[in-house]
Amino acid sequence: MLRPQREPFFNTSFEEPAIIAKINPQLAAVISALADVPADQLAKASAIFHPRRVERGTMLLHAGDVPHTLLFVVSGLLRLFYLDTAGNEFTKSFCDTNDLVSAYSALLLGTPSRLFIDALEDTTLLVAEYSDYQALSAQHPCWARVNQKRAELLFIKKEQRESALLLDDAQTRYQQFLSEYPDLDRRVKQHHIASYLGITPVSLSRIRARLRVLT
To answer: How far apart are CA 71 and CA 26, in angstroms?
Structure first.
């Protein structure tokens, strides 16, 4: 498989926001579900996240790039994946509406990413520079609670994903995928789902056929 071609993505530079800005209700709802955040802090968060619309197939991050942004999915669908030297793809995760997305280890360490991030659908994003989010986080203790809760959720998801790959059979993993992502089976191509499950597309077809017989 050919390595994805590099194309320019976007620049999120901006002027210093006003102290009180219009609150984005979708972003605010997701943040408020993590912790109790005052309205003025939600307004400041809304001010550093800027809307971007990307077309299906856009590569938002290439392996080897040092990430510097946080992405919030307003609508659409992103995929995080690895690519080995033989050109084989390994899907790490799918990110749907209301997900906060980045190549987190590379972002936090300031090192080149090993992940690619691409858009599987036309996608509307809110994009913030991580440095601006760090500056915001230093202003109020509520952000420590937000970041802690976010880290806890990511850790739980990571551990559950690892245990499924190590302990569950392919059919169980597929059924868990359907439970976790109930509408993605019709939105995502079969080979992407197969790479997420760690199986071949042929194996996935057999599992689907077997489940249709059982139902």
So the answer is: 13
- Tally the domains of the chain: 1
Domain encompassing residue 49: 25-141
Say which CATH number the domain at 68 has. Answer: 2.60.120.10
The answer to whether position 136 is within a domain reads yes
33 found inside a domain: yes
Q: Is residue 176 part of a domain?
A: no
In order along its 215 residues, the chain shows pLDDT tens digits of 555 555 545 554 444 444 444 899 999 999 999 999 999 999 999 999 999 999 999 999 999 999 999 999 999 999 999 999 999 999 999 999 999 999 999 999 999 999 999 999 999 999 999 999 999 999 999 999 999 999 999 999 999 999 999 999 999 999 999 998 989 999 999 999 999 999 999 999 999 999 888 76
Question: Does residue 186 form part of some domain?
Answer: no
